[in-house]
Amino acid sequence: MWDEKLPYVKHAYNRATHTSTQSSPFEACFGYLPRDPLDMVFRKEEDDNGRDDRDKAQKFIQRI
């Protein structure tokens, strides 16, 4: 039961800014923050074709 929550806890921990490094563990390792599910809802970024992340997410949902 608790083990099913571990991926979410790991994601949250790796996105959190740490006081000693002033960056998250993921950002320190890879140089950028990973996307969060809420980023798909509140942020709108367009690619070269003019499609935003929400459009791509909707197409993916329809495809699966």
Characterization of this structure:
This protein is mainly alpha-helical and about 60 residues long. The chain folds into two domains: about 35 residues, no CATH class; about 30 residues, no CATH class. It contains four helices and no strands. The protein is flat and about 40 Å long.
Summarize the structure.
The protein has 64 residues and is mostly helical. It is built from four helices and no strands. It has helices spanning 6-15, 25-30, 37-42, 53-63.
Essential attributes:
64 residues, 4 helices, 0% strand
Main sheet record? none
Number of self-contained structural domains: 2
Poorly predicted spans:
none
Head-to-tail CA distance between termini: 27 Å
Classification by helices and strands: mainly alpha
Shape label = flat
Q: What's the count of strands?
A: 0
Helix coverage percent: 40-55%
Radius of gyration: 15 Å
Order of helices and strands: HHHH
Note the total helix count. Answer: 4
Mean of all residue-level pLDDT scores? 80
Strand composition percent: under 5%
List the helices and strands and how they pair.
Blueprint: H1 6-15, H2 25-30, H3 37-42, H4 53-63
